């Protein structure tokens, strides 16, 4: 089984943690693993359970490419020390693993950040449902009377053999 692991890197200003909620709906660009077809901005909801064709298993996303007879799928999986679902101030400037996805017939090519993330500032103030569509975010922390922000958001996928 090949698992795609999403690695994320960001610069923080006054931020302790960027948190990806457990029920976060992911948005990806994908490509056919055995072909050249692509799709942009598909969504994968970890709470959605789709029954696989000709199988007893369930997945979080399923589709058929035009040229394929078999169903292609994505399943959100939890792997120890990989599915952290957060980036901390200690991780600043480093690509760190955030989430893992079991993909069959699909390669993940790009993560499209959207909204729904939570942030905790250095003073403990919580910011909820923040938007990272522009690959950055800023606000004001009344506890410290200073601006806080996330900048230079970058990501990449790496494969992980299980």
UniProtKB/TrEMBL annotation:
It comes from the Eukaryota. The keyword Metal-binding applies. Keywords: Metal-binding, Zinc. Pfam families: CXXC_Zn-b_euk. One of its GO terms (molecular function) is zinc ion binding. Belongs to the UPF0587 family. PANTHER family: CXXC MOTIF CONTAINING ZINC BINDING PROTEIN (PTHR12857:SF0). This is DUF866 domain-containing protein. It comes from Cryptosporidium ubiquitum.
